[in-house]
Amino acid sequence: MPLRAGVAAVAVATACHSFPRSASAQEEAVDTVSIALEGTEAIVRHRIPNLGDRVVALAIRVPGQSIEVRDVVREGRALLDAALSEEPDAYRFEVESGAPIVLAYRVSGELGRIPLFVPAGRAELTVAREFEEPYLIRVTGEPARLDEIDTATSLPRFERLNEGVLEARLSSLPSFVRLSGGGLLSFGRVADLLALAVILLGAWWAWRRLRRRRADAGS
For the whole model, what pTM was predicted? Predict the structure, then answer.
């Protein structure tokens, strides 16, 4: 079945007839999710397990984003019968395969949240799938671009390596990766300011109650 995608507010770009083979996809470690940032796009590559004789996976839909499948590889061979379709809140990917596959796709547009295709099952859009070995999520890109990412407030929480690469090791595969930017209005700074405001408000309320009690005791 050729790759297809419905027309919606968020466009999904597709390959019309086949997916080119990718040597990097074939060589990718099975426990590694690779996210390469390239301008306003992200190239994502990761392994998806099979369910019986098919691979079925879902990815959340993010406003302002489009997805294009680049290649689908199983045991070094490209698969041509993959299908990408739309559900109300997710993209559904299917391909006949009696073994896990490596899926490579391009995410364009808004990159604050980068969807990952998780094995089908409605709950798995929010509940991660457990694996025997830790999952390594690696983010690469231009050093200046990676320097803009706030690792403390991104999800998952990344470690910045010497060469600028970001890595996170998890016991499960999340449904998306959130890359938070730095700056005065970054997610982390806003969260810190909100937390400080709550603390100050609580202290002011406690001081006001204490003052009122003293006033009542003295009257």
Answer: 0.66
